[in-house]
Amino acid sequence: MANYDYDLLVIGAGSGGVRAARLTAQLGKRVAVIEGSDLGGTCVNVGCVPKKLLVYASAFAEGFTDSRGFGFSPGQIPFDWQTLITNKNDEINRLNDIYERILENAGVQIIQGWAKFISPHEIQVGDQTLSAERILIAVGGKPFVPEFPGSDLAITSNEAFYLEDLPKRVVIVGGGYIAVEFAGIFNGLDSQVTQLYRGDLFLRGFDHELREKLAENMKSRNIDLRFNTDVRSIEKSADGLVITTQDDQTIVADLVMYATGRIANTQSLALDQAGVNVGKRGEIPVDLYSKTNVDHIFAVGDVTNRMNLTPVAIAESIALVKTLYEDNPTAMQYGNIPSTVFSQPNLGTVGLTEEQARDAHDNIEVYRSSFRPMRNILAGRDEKVFMKLIVDADSRKVIGTHMLGPDAGEIIQGIAIAMQAGATKEHFDATIGIHPTTAEEFVTMRTAG
């Protein structure tokens, strides 16, 4: 048997890589993690964690306004962007330190630098050559900006987290959850926001009805949504950046942020030296057990472009460790995975959309409810919550749950547990609601339509 430096060498110290490394080391294996940037990966440094902190910040203005209906008289409350970014950075640094302690306490060696394959079992990091029996690739993805005249003047979400000043006029290009979330962030912090998307309606893949209602709500918050619109060029001018669209409209802004997709972060890995296949966008195809076309090389998380969510990367890593080191072959299950778009209001979902359900099932029932939540009544806010349950009429199982409204992510998480357990509509009906809450509506909907 070959004499390797490590039993497992992990490339990438994001959520998936760290979890796999820690669990494997705790089983007594020799493990190292290679990371060229900050520990914690996209989620901790330029993803879900800092984004959620900015979402919280952007919601305060709405709270101050709504408080008047409850007897408060807030005056002019100044906002300081630099304070927010400094405090956000401090929190990220704290989390970086936690990840370092987690790895060190588990006995994982941390190797700083950028990895490159030089053979199927060997990795070069700077002037070091490291060998391993098995290698896990968990390098995630990165934002992608297409090339066009002036594309170098646009930023991505990575840079948005470190802006020195809050821009007054922002154009966001894209229709995925990152674009939608940042439109809400900048709008909540009183920037003038225009969002451009080349398709008919943003958030492709989510339930169509919720997408429509979210668009209505965002427009009511004075976000300028322009669908079927794409950028032709960006130019500098004395007044800012001039964006020219494909239909010859012009928009002047202080900042243009592109959120039109991400690509796998594999360009510098020299995967060809290991014989690992890659897809058109650099993603690494894997089987049900996260194995690449090379028997001893595996990949998890966004680099595989399966379901690009942090908890999914962690779950894939747990399944991989069971498969490789616990004699328990475990395939990741991708059904009923809940997710939330931290738009304003939030969009939460688990299971099938109505469109998917109609394609997959012969007979479905759809339950809907739309109402003003109690808080909005005294606040004088017309915005409504929208909820939707999709039921397989034959088995009676709830196969899709969707919500647009405050705290949708918190509410959907609990419902995801019920759906994972196979709950039927009758289980929902037999559950007593907590009154008065928004969430109780999920157990009081009785009429399909």
Explain this structure to me?
There is one protein chain. The chain is of the alpha/beta class and 449 residues long. The protein contains twelve helices and 21 strands. Strands 1, 2, 3, 4, 5, 6 and 16 form a seven-stranded mixed beta sheet that branches. A five-stranded antiparallel beta sheet has the order 17-18-21-20-19, sandwiched between helices. Strands 10-9-8-14 form a four-stranded parallel beta sheet, covered by helices on one side. Strand 1 (6-11), helix 1 (15-26) and strand 2 (31-35) form a beta-alpha-beta unit. Helix 1 runs parallel beside helix 8. The termini are far apart.
Helical segment count: 12
Name the CATH superfamily assignment of the largest domain.
FAD/NAD(P)-binding domain
User: Do you know the CATH topology of the largest domain?
Assistant: FAD/NAD(P)-binding domain
What's the structural domain tally?
A: 3
Radius of gyration, in angstroms, nearest whole number: 24 Å
| Beginning-to-end CA distance, first to last residue | 65 Å
* Topology, number of strands: 21
Query: Judging by the overall fold, what is the CATH architecture of the largest domain?
Result: 3-Layer(bba) Sandwich
Give the structural class: alpha/beta
Indicate the CATH class of the largest domain: Alpha Beta
Return residue spans where pLDDT drops below 50 for at least 5 consecutive residues: none
Work out the strand percent.
15-25%
* Share of helix, binned: 25-40%
